[in-house]
Structure formats: C-alpha cells, structure tokens
Write a structure and sequence with these properties.
Blueprint lengths: L10 H12 L3 E2 H11 L4 H13 L3 E6 L2 E6 L3 H15 L5 H14 L14
Antiparallel strand pairs: 1-3, 2-3
C-alpha cells in the first residue's frame, strides 16, 4: 500500500524521480549531470531532494565503493496514478471528464519529456 507521501510529490522532486526512473541505479554524480542539463540547481539542492524522496520512501539508496546509487521504489505509473486518485478525491470545481481532459492535454504537451506528467501539489 502506498503511503500518503507518494501522492505529495513536488515538481522538483518529480524532476529527480524522472531521472531515476529513466536510469535505475544512477549515481548522485550522474543525477547532478542530468539535472544540470535542465536546471541551474546547486549540489546541495539536489542532495536535499534526494533525501526528501528517501524519507518519503519513494527511492532507495545503495552505496557501492563509497558512491550512492538510487533506485525507485515504485514505478512512474504507480506514483502518477496515486497522485491522480488523490487529486480526483479532492477536486471541487472540475468534473472527472474535465480533469481527465486536462491530464491528457498535459501528457500531449510534454510527450518529449522523460516523465510526461508534471506533478505540482503543495501540502
């Protein structure tokens, strides 16, 4: 069973997750290289995001020869599905059809991205 934290992924955390989904077992150094292609984030920001994802049990860190490697605990489809279910349960102004149309449009607009759907929810 997924915990509530799975549904509360920030955009920044999702950016890191997308890289880990795409490159299972990726090192901290390589995550930083991938992030630097898209964002101007400092190493401390990336490490903070990794720690938050670990605390939410979304990723697991294995250390080999003093280098951390990260693996996702859940597939992207499970995380996105949990988020959508939570969002649908909290919707107030959108009908389910309107919401699904919004999601479909988002997926079409981001089809060239690694992950596709961007999650932005503040708790």
């Amino acid at each position: 069973m997924l915990n509530r934290e799975v549904c509360c992924v920030t955009n920044a955390e999702y950016e890191v997750l997308r890289i880990i989904w795409h490159y299972p077992g990726i090192s901290t150094k390589d995550i930083c290289k991938e992030i630097k292609k898209r964002k101007n984030w400092q190493l401390s920001t990336i490490k903070t995001l990794l720690l938050r994802l670990e605390n939410k049990t979304l990723i697991v860190k294995n250390t080999y020869y003093r280098q951390a490697h990260y693996y996702a605990q859940y597939s992207e489809s499970i995380v996105v599905s949990a988020f959508i279910k939570r969002l649908l349960s909290r919707r107030e102004t959108l009908s389910q059809e309107e919401f699904l149309e919004l999601v479909e449009n988002n997926l079409q607009n981001n089809s060239s991205d690694i992950g596709g759907l961007k999650i932005n929810e503040k708790t």
